[in-house]
Write a structure and sequence with these properties.
Structural class: alpha/beta
Distance between the termini: 56 Å
Order of helices and strands: EHEEEHEHEHEEEEEEHEH
Largest sheet: 9 strands, mixed
Mean pLDDT: 91
Helix content: 10-25%
Radius of gyration: 22 Å
Bound molecules: manganese (II) ion
Strand content: 25-35%
Low-confidence stretches: 270-277
Number of helices: 6
Strand order of the largest sheet: 3-4-2-1-5-6-7-13-8
């Protein structure tokens, strides 16, 4: 098994190295990670300055580790297209110290690194721990290694990723594993206004979480119930229910009578002015 490991907490993060050591028991592990913490940078990529990938020496050995002066998505892009000798069987991002649930996946660098792997056609996992307690990392790493073997032996649909979140609990208190959908993580007082020493305002984005536990089967609800959450995800954000509704709007009428091709129906040749339902 060949694994590409990345993260958004940076090349020095403990979560990355605990997982790297565990995965090395079952796989050939390549690490390509940001040279500093890049949490909450979402899926951004670097296109206006050069990217450098510096090979890192660990324990006196020049390992297959690269530190990149870019984002998590940059790291996976570089790894898949330029750095790795052969494509990996899996892309894994983590282990992040802090959960990535619900709407937060859109801001998450951890999830975006795995998403970039999925876009590259490689089965991918994003792994996050709902804690900053590093003593919980070895269990999270062992569960991730188990999951890697499951994904490879059973197979998953191409172009998907699994978003994994582990609760802030010692292993003996974890209640189980839930297969979930993305919940809705909301924040109160997300923007704090303060003043600098010259009296000018500045802002911190740092809200208090106000979760919606009412969403049955969501990742948020699973973690609140003390379970490990596994959410299968895709980069297709289309709302398919709204596709059907919008087709009934017949917006092609605005282009004039000869271009009213919509919904796969034949062009409508009559005059504009047909009432829009
Ligand atoms: Mn992070």
């Amino acid at each position: 098994m060949r694994v590409l490991l990345s993260n958004d907490d940076g090349i020095l993060a403990e979560g990355l190295h605990v997982l790297r050591r565990k995965l090395a028991e079952i796989a050939e592990v390549y690490v390509v990670a940001p040279d500093r913490e890049r949490s909450a940078c979402g899926h951004s990529i670097t296109v206006h300055r050069p990217l450098r990938a510096q090979q890192v020496t660990l324990d006196g050995v020049a390992g297959p580790l690269w530190a990149v002066n870019g984002t998590p998505a940059d790291c996976v892009k570089l790894a898949l297209e330029a750095l790795l000798p052969e494509p990996p069987d899996l892309v894994i991002s983590g282990i992040n110290l802090g959960a990535n649930l619900g709407t937060d996946v859109l801001y998450s660098g951890t999830v975006s690194a795995a998403m970039e792997g999925a876009i590259g056609g490689v089965p991918s996992l994003a792994v996050s721990l709902d804690s900053t307690d590093t003593t919980l990392l070895p269990f999270a790493a062992a569960f991730t290694a188990f999951l890697c073997e499951q994904v490879l032996s059973r197979g998953v649909r191409p172009y998907t990723l699994l978003n994994v979140n582990l609760p802030n609990l010692p292993p003996t208190q974890i209640k189980g594993v839930a297969i979930t959908s993305l919940g809705w993580r909301r924040y109160e007082k997300a923007v704090h206004r303060r003043e600098d020493p010259r009296g000018r305002p500045y802002y911190w984005i740092a809200g208090e979480i106000r979760d919606d536990y009412g969403l049955d089967g969501s990742d948020v609800a699973a973690l609140a119930a003390g379970k490990i959450s596994l959410t299968p995800m895709h980069f297709d954000l289309t709302d398919y229910r709204l596709v059907e509704q919008l087709k009934t709007w017949d917006l092609g009428v605005w282009l004039g009578p000869h271009r009213r091709v919509s919904n796969g129906r034949p062009p409508v040749e009559d005059s504009p002015g047909e009432p829009l339902a």
